[in-house]
Amino acid sequence: MVTRFLETTPGVEQAMVDSGIILIKYWLKVSADEQTRRLEGRIDDPRKICKLSDMDLLSYGGWFAYSRARDDMFAATDTAWAPWFVAHTDDKKRGRLNIIGHLLGQVPYEPLPKTDVTLPKRQKPRGYKDPNLPAETHPETLLTGPAGQAAQSQRRSPADRTQCDLITHEYR
Question: What is the mean pLDDT of residues 156-169?
Fold first, then answer.
C-alpha cells in the first residue's frame, strides 16, 4: 500500500502543478541529539509535559525506521516539478525565518506601487498623562536579569545571518 502511494504521488503532484498550483515541499530536519534535548526538556518541564504525546515516544523509539521511510519518500517524490527542500531546524526560530524567506522567494508577485504617505498631526493631550505602570508590565524590564542576558547571548551577529543559510538545497 505504501509503495503504491509513493508510485502515484508524483503523478498527482504533476497534475497539481500543471493546473497552476505552486507546490512547495519542506522537510524540517531535526538532528537526533536535538530531538532528544527537546523531548527531555518536555519531560523535565511541568509547563511542557502536556506537549509530550504517546506518538512522540513511539517516533523517538523508531528513529531509524522513520529515517528509512523519509529516504524512501524523498527517492520516490523528489521531482523536477515538486522538489523537496530540506530546512535544518535544530534552531527553531532561525529555521522558521529561513523557511519564510525561502517560501516568499518561491512565489511570484508584483510589488505594489509606492504611495505618498504623510502622518497626520497628533492630537493634543488635553490633560492626559501616561500612567506609572508597574515594572512587570514592561518586557524590557523583564529582560534585564539573567534571562535577558541569556536571550542577548543567543542573538547572532549580522555576519552570521545569510538568506536561507539553513535551507541547504533541494533533496537531490
Answer: 44
**Can you give the pTM of this predicted structure?**
0.65
**164 Rama class: left (phi>0) / alpha (psi -120 to 50) / beta:** left
Tens of pLDDT along 110-138? 989 999 999 999 999 999 998 887 766 54
State how far Cα 83 lies from the chain centre.
18
Can you spell out the DSSP letters for 13-75?
HHHHHHTT----EEEEE--HHHHHHHHHHHHH-TTTGGG--HHHHHHHHTHHHHHHHHHHHHH
Which three cell numbers, joined as nine digits, stand for 137?
508590565
CB 77 within 8 A of CB 10: yes
